[in-house]
Amino acid sequence: MSRTEVTAPDMVRVILGGDGVRALPDLTFTDHYVKLKFGEVTRTYTIRWLDRVANEMAIDFVIHGDEGLAGPWAASARPGDEISFTGPGGAWAPADDADAHLLVGDEAAIPAIAAALEALPADARASVFLEVASADHHQPLRVPSRTTVTWVHRDEHGLPYGEALVRAVMAAGVPDGVVEAFVHGNADMVKPLRRFLFGDAGLDRARVSISGYWRTGLNEDRWQSSKREFNAAMEAEDPAGV
Question: How confident is the model at residue 238 (pLDDT cuts 50, 70, 90)?
Answer without folding.
Answer: low
